[in-house]
Amino acid sequence: MKLSILTVVVATLISGCAYNVPVQPVSAESINIYSSYENKVPGQFAVVFDENIRNVNREVRPMTGVCGPHSYPISLSDSIAVSVKHTLDLVFEQPVELATMPASETMKKLGLRGVVLVKMADFSPMLVCSPGRGCSGSTNISFGVNISSINGALLGTLVSGSKTIDVAESCSGGARALSESITGATRTALERLATEASNSLKLRPSEAR
Question: Taking the model in full, what pTM does it have?
């Protein structure tokens, strides 16, 4: 019996545990927009998300031997798309989410001024854990955003954000460090997107600074 228990313990230590990383949408209230304008971008814009933004999954393992047997699964699901939509609601007067890119005739029929296409360009979470010091989670994230009208491109940009979070916890704290770093990096990228779109002269052709 003692041998069996010891075998189970050793097997558990070798295989490690899976600490799921919770990822919540960034709240609109936490987004800071630095705009030269008091009003939102006028008109109705369709918002279309590339399918890759909802199919992001990663299994992070610590880059050091400490906590090395453990894994940290991440599934972004709808959290990023919801965060981006919340941000665009702050920038555009009438943003409407569509499942696919609308044709020119559809844009005319719906009265759309333009379309905002959002793609995930990079998502790189990392984790380092040290004995007696806890875990440090870092995330780099970037989005490719193209805004166009029936007549052509209005704005094309790549916005990115990075964040590192340290937690004074053992291996289980790695999940919190990763979660908070993802939220922080996403918020930074979204603030840059909101600021750039809000101040774009091509999106405000009838307005002067």
Answer: 0.88
